[in-house]
Amino acid sequence: MNNVGVLDRAIRGVAGLALLAWALGVIPGVSPSLWGWIGLVPLGTALVGHSPIYAILGINTCSKV
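Below the sequence we write its predicted structure tokens.
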């Protein structure tokens, strides 16, 4: 069951891609960092549409239809 809404997924996707770009060193003038690999988490939750943390906390950002 999805618990991540459209806007939330978009924000997570952009943040995840930015962090991965940091990890891979594709941003000019910015040194690569291992911390950027944490971008896999928001990118994964954006692609799947489910956040385990949201499930534990009872948060649901999906619109009610």
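Residues 5 and 35 are 26 Å apart (CA to CA).
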